[in-house]
Design brief:
The complex is a heterodimer of chains A (about 500) and B (about 300).
Chain A (H helix, E strand, L loop, with lengths): L1 H30 L19 E8 L6 H16 L1 E8 L1 H14 L5 E4 L6 H7 L6 H7 L1 H6 L2 H6 L1 E2 L2 E2 L1 E3 L7 E7 H6 L14 H10 L4 E3 L11 E3 L6 E4 L8 E2 L4 H16 L13 H6 L2 E8 L3 H9 L3 E5 L4 E2 L1 H4 L3 E4 L6 H13 L1 H9 L6 E3 L4 E4 L21 E2 L6 H11 L1 E2 L13 H19 L5 H14 L2 H19 L1
Parallel strand pairs in A: 1-2, 1-3, 8-12, 14-19, 17-18
Antiparallel strand pairs in A: 3-15, 4-5, 6-15, 7-12, 7-13, 9-10, 10-11, 16-17
Chain B lengths: L1 H6 L8 H29 L3 H7 L11 H9 L1 H33 L6 H13 L4 H11 L7 H4 L6 H14 L2 H9 L4 H12 L1 H17 L2 H6 L8 H17 L8 H5 L4 H31 L6
The chains are: A alpha/beta (about 500), B mainly alpha (about 300).
Chain lengths: ~500, ~300
Amino acid sequence: MKHGKKSAALLSLVLAGLLALSACSGNSGGNGPAASPGSGSNTQGGDEKPVELIWYTIGTPQKDLDRVNEEVNKYTLEKINATVQMNMLDWGDYSQKMGVMTASGTPVDIMFTASWAFDYVQNARKGAFMSIDELLKSHGQGILDVLDPAFLEGSKVDGVNYGIPANKELPAQEVWRFNKKLLDKYNLKLDGVRTLESLEPLLATIKANEPNVTPLAIAKDFMPLAGYDYLIEKMPMAVKLDTKDFKVVNILETPEMQKELDTMRKYYQAGYIATEAATLDTMNDAILAGNWFTDRAATQPFADNLWSASYGYPVVSTPAGEPTIYNWSVMGSMQAISANSEHPEKAMEFLNLLNTDPYLRNLIDSGIEDVHYKKTGDNVMENLPEAQNYDMPTFSLGNVMLTYLTKDDPATKWEEFKTFNASGKPSPILGFNFNGSNVATELATLQNVKEEFWSTLMTGTVDPKEYLPKAIEKFKTAGLDKVIAEAQKQLDAWVAEQK
Amino acid sequence: MIGVRKKRRDFSQLSPLGNALAVLLAGGFAFLCVFPFLFVILISFTDEAALARNGYSIFPEKWSLEAYRYIFLTGDQLLRSYGVTILVTVLGTLISLVMISLFSYAVSRRSFKYRNFFAFFAFFTMLFNGGLVPTYIVVTQLLGMNDSLWALIMPMAVNAFYIMIMRTFFILSVPESIIEAGKIDGASEFGVFIRLVLPLSLPGLATIGLFSTLAYWNDWFNALLYIDSPNLVPLQSMLMRIETSMQFLLQNSNNPSVNSGLLQSLPQDTSRMAMVVLATGPIVLAYPFFQRYFVQGLTVGAVKE
């Protein structure tokens, strides 16, 4: 038995060693060396061996992906002497699976990233992406030409660009959406509707006459607009949009937010809001059934048409705020080059082509002409029945302004997008990304406090007079002041750097 | 006579009232367990529009087979996933039975010099494992099983806990003297194992087999990690993908990028319920037949005598 014990000890030692080894290799794969040097591989075609790029993007995997991929390869082989292996990961899996893949050093050249999927800022800091500042200049000139500079400016992480934002709507603007059937039925006018308070007479009319309709259709993620930009989404640290001194404040202590919360409470008590709003994931069911009157949503040009088409009845909207360029709106959809890519130049050439070449962009977006769609005009197309086997999320695949219009789209669609983009006012902290690593423990505690109070306060489910002081107190004990001080320090340093 | 019969009443029998209460309690509890599933079946047969109007109800306003029609017309994905799941389950169960029984028989034999070492080797994995990322590296890069069916079978083929169960089973229910007798009659080690030990251990094998079958049938995580191609996605993973993607899109529905158009293309409530019914149906129906082994299996490895 002595022998058994000894060998067991030895074995555990060996296994422990193995574990340590593999953990190390995992790390170095993730942090991987930056750009492998090698410039001037710009020659196209010739006798160079074609490069195969591996591309992961988000969306439900499509049946005809391989078929379209083949066509894409024919074209890219000729254009940039490279082929692409397209892979799609489903919405819910994307973040987790990309996390494992980058951490394990699995070969990937290009990948989708955004503020809401495979978190761009966080993973850029972890070293998952390659810096593209140089590459953009050397191999991505076309992107620089078509993309609004605000996109690249806003998507810098600690002063460096790691991803190419899709050229689409740049600012985010909140609107009140209305069920037009009810507007017409009671002959309600939208003049003067803008703030939460101004909705009141309309909501009262609906409440009095339509017992089955939820007048203000909000769910647990609703937040009143108070004219602030949040440093971390749905955490109370915020900076006023028209700030001069870049002061970070607790939004719950601001008079603007307190006024909005009082209004929400009033609406809740008047029954304009579903009683279970604070726990509802979504009001989608009510909206699909048409049992709602108004809600708030982020808009883009011609969004009314889009909503009307997808719900099957007319929807109209009126602005609830200014179009503002936020970090998260700029980072809504990006393609980044992996830190361990062996062919960063080719990857950039491919992304350049994707963002500038209408043929390639539409091939990847809508499929093969005369198979998945047919052209009915110069840049107008119509889906064929096969299109259901190849239905890609357009916004995730680079420059949307190259995509063909459908027959319901106005001819000036992309012009309107450009006007909309030009109208956007940058948030004062556009391009600033808070680094929470120094206050990670506090942030975790704050998260718990937030879970406890946020939704009930924001939806008016509880009385702010009683619960707001409680929430502020709890946030304070959880260390909000320390986090705000840290944020203020970083923000001041950033502001100084900008000047 | 009646009096005599009454006297003979079993002492362990409950009084009629107590009996009725116990039956009611157990029945009520059983109903509570079964009800959610029955409800899912009901919803899957409900008309989509009626569901949106009235919410979930036990007596739907209108019945409909639309959900099943939708799945069978547009979703050959479901049938393909069925195929993948069945193939992986059958193949996986066979492979894991072979590997587990060979390993545990070896470590159960006293005459095997390194049996403690190998037993510890298996036991060690119950306490420590490599963690997600190193495991992923081994499977995809060292073994190169990325995006293949082997990635669904191999990671679950050997389970240290089942090895422990089988080892105890071999030690307790296969007498050493039978093995000796076989040897005296001139059987090889392998002959002893195949012709003497295995036939005696069928109940144990059935238990392990059942456990493996359930594990393979219900596995979705390996597919999430290793499978990219839609052709190789097993059933549970397909359901999981639909469900998590749905949730993800709903959570991000405020995001202007993820516009409402995407939500429309996802399956509706009734179709999702129908998928659940189709995915769990076979295993639920097969369950009563296995139940005997299942109950037995729980006592396998427990100390007897």
